[in-house]
Amino acid sequence: MSRHFLVLDAGTGSGRAVIFDRDGRQIGLAQEEWLHLPEPGVPGSMGFDFVGAWALLTRCIRKVMADCGLGGADIAAISSTSMREAIVLYDAAGHEIWACANVDSRAAAEVAELKAKAPDFERRFYEISGQTFALGALPRLNWVRRHHPEIFAQVRAISMINDWIGARLTDEITAEPTNGSTSGLMDLRARDWSDALIDLAGLDRAIFPRVVEPGSVVGHVTPKAAAETGLAAGTPFVAGGGDVQLGTIGLGVLNLGDAAVLGGTFWQQVVNIPAGAVDPAMRVRINSAALPGMNQAEAISFFVGLTARWFRDAFCAEEKARAAAEGLDAYDLIEDLAMQVPPGAHGIIPIYSDAMEFGNWYHAAPSLLNLSLDPAVCSKGAIFRAIEENAAIVSAENLARVEAFAALPATAPLVLAGGASKGRLWPQIVADVTGRTLRIPRVREATALGGAAAAATGIGQFANLGEAARAFVTFERTVTPDPDNRALYDTARSRWLAAYAAQKALVDAGITETMWRAPGT
Description:
Elements: E1 4-10, E2 14-21, E3 26-33, H1 50-68, E4 75-82, E5 87-90, E6 96-100, H2 108-116, H3 121-129, H4 137-147, H5 149-152, E7 157-160, H6 161-170, H7 177-180, E8 186-187, E9 192-193, H8 195-201, E10 217-220, H9 223-229, E11 236-242, H10 243-249, E12 259-263, E13 267-274, E14 285-288, E15 294-301, H11 304-315, H12 317-326, H13 330-338, E16 349-351, E17 367-369, H14 380-406, E18 414-417, H15 426-434, E19 438-441, H16 446-458, H17 465-472, E20 475-479, H18 486-508
Parallel strand pairs: 1-4, 4-11, 12-18, 18-19
Antiparallel strand pairs: 1-2, 2-3, 5-6, 5-7, 8-9, 10-11, 12-13, 13-15, 14-15, 16-17, 19-20
């Protein structure tokens, strides 16, 4: 009996093939980095090279199977996950004719035009889809319609990237609601394409494919795909989902009110909320959850991991050299310095990511405020601790905004995953700032594990994704908040909110430059 699952992951920075056994244990991974290249003469463009990407994924499939000593017949089922928001367009023969990555920002003018149609035009989309225009598919489709009418005239189907993987393997173009919802053209309550929004967008309903739920069999590997990949023809391909939504399955975030902080380059704060809830203030995005009957509120903190890396590379050459010489992680050495600094980091206020404002999304200029000329107070350790504390403060603010509109109590343990969960200090700071117990998962590849849960569900090993996750997910440690630090961090949060508003005012006045601004804002 085939005893393994293959998960294909098309991330922003790389493509990966990951193999799990029937018990959810990862046994192999092959990965290659890729780039999303700008189109000549198109500012902000980041195309998705579907020809090169498919060749890369097929190499990863063959490599991981070879590394694990497996053949195509050993794979019981396949699933996929990917970056969200990225889209692929197909012609009548099912061939790709245009695609863009999630980081594509070419459609700023189209976003602005949509916002200008009527004062409540974007809100009408948000109330049905949970999305604003900044990251959605409609502005990009309008860009293609305007700049490449010859391509737009050929469009007969649209999908997201994880669905595109399934189309390559099975010749079946479908969509699933988790990543499909990030297009901004789905109805969150129905978990299907919104006829009302598609009509408002002036698009042809026929280009939107059938919707299948995560954990459902889409089709089977074709002989052509088998020859390209080394997989066995007839292997079932099971619908997966967007990377964050499948990641929460792989983290055991399964019940209403469950929440996670995914601490990578960007930090995402994700909360399971009732299916009908949206934010009246349009501050956070709402996506379909992988599990039916609920949605997920998601807030994004920009460049958190990148800020920590910038500080390491710009100011910690000594720690990097020592880490390289002794086989250590430079971040561990920098955290050693930060742990010598008292909570509150001597009042240093970092200005990097704002709490999420989905309807009017831009940031202040990167800054460090309230520094001291006393090197004993304003040291490398103090600044790094302040950066870590600030990430936790932004997360706490985002979580509070979700809990307020969704009327959910902040009592369940908070799951912390990603690179931040590996630290000795950062998890404790997150626990102290939020006042919530943290659970840190054993498996770091949570998104791929969620894909394995989908594959296992598709072939009947489990009755549903929740059952699969409960069988696969285990936790490594628990971090308990120190109540003595809560009042201090509440004060620091209030000071940061006031300081950030003042820094955004400098951007508004043209004195400083925003760290990032959403297209069309």
